Amino acid sequence: MPFLQNSWYCASWSKDLTSRPVGIRILDEDLVIYRRADGVPVAMTGICPHRFAPLSLGKVDGDDIICGYHGLRFDPHGACTHNPHGKGMVPPRARLTPYPVEDRSGAIWVWMGDPEHANASDILSFDFLTDTQAWAGFSGYLHINSNYQLVIDNLLDLTHAAYLHPNSVGVDPKLRGDRKLKYKFSVEDGVITSDYSVEGTPPSPLLRLWTDREIGDIYSPISLHLPSNLVLDLSMTDRGMARGTGSRMPSVHLIVPETETSCHYFYALSRNGRLDDPALSESMANIIRQAFVDEDEPMIRAVHDAMRGRDFFALEPAILETDAAGLTARRALAKLIKQEQAALKKSPAGPSDALTESLS
Fold this sequence. Notes:
Structural class: alpha+beta
Order of helices and strands: EEEEEEEEEEEHHHEEHEEEEHHH
Shape: globular
Radius of gyration: 22 Å
Number of helices: 7
CATH topology of the largest domain: Naphthalene 1,2-dioxygenase Alpha Subunit, Chain A, domain 1
Number of strands: 17
Distance between the termini: 22 Å
CATH class of the largest domain: Alpha Beta
CATH architecture of the largest domain: Alpha-Beta Complex
Low-confidence stretches: 348-358
């Protein structure tokens, strides 16, 4: 299936991008990203048009990037400004495609579609990664060898946490006793939400690192902003207290298709307590890495391999009540992609309009 082009995708965490060029493949397109001398990010075609060398193997000089193979120089707009060979003539094909790029919410975002439809106000906004007065936390990256929609399935269905993550981010069903996980599903303004809660439960091992509550209510609403950005607003409160209070751990999960069979996973998690405790942040990061690297990723890859490239719905999966969000997401994304492909010969609609229509 083709990818949704008209969308912003995360290409790096802001703190990780410097003047050193970095290569990344998004939607099966090779890009190079770096910062100009003034710190403004640049995103362009990642392969030199001369002999197809990755530009990430070159170097940045001021605002320009120089190919590490034969020294061709390109400005931030993609024009070749210097050929050090022969008479110095610049071939017409010696140019790169620039991509709209924004530095927001602690992340570098690249628009992969028609530049005329790139609207920075459509970028997912969150403050818990950059507001160090109210939050403390960390960010990370994981490469996953599976189709990106399987990662979205995994995140929208948090019922798996009790079985796959009892020693990291989930609560063992035996410890939870007869307290059942409550589930609500909703779609509002194009955002698909799975809302989970459980009352009178002990904390997960991750929460236990910094909460004093032995028993409380846990709320875990996770929302998908199509095509593939998710926000989880997890909190643990005293019994009977309102959600969004108590110990909070908001997190963001930015899933970026690399190819049909691989994806990038940019994640960040923060907390609203013990802000001046870097050792706690490291301990939490270790548990998250355990959950993602040792537990989620092997299972998702095994599912991908078991499907053997076959269409999800063609396999006629058994459907559970808690699959509502994942199924809605798959259908909405397929509709968006179909609309975008059909509009290539016409004047394409903006991503927000197309999204609203896909869920109507």
